[in-house]
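FAQ: What does the model actually see?

It sees only this:
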Amino acid sequence: MGLEEEKRREALGTQIVCDLLEISRLTQQPIKEIRLNTNGVFEEVKNPVCDHDLDQ
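And it is asked to produce this:
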């Protein structure tokens, strides 16, 4: 993967996070943390560690 592709993916990832945070704020619903398991399936994290609230 080239440098331009990495920059594009990083920018898209950042935009997704910003969009999710805005949706969470507007709906007053928390964002569930998910991870990709070893089988390649997304699943909810049972005890997430989330520090983005500290930034506000």
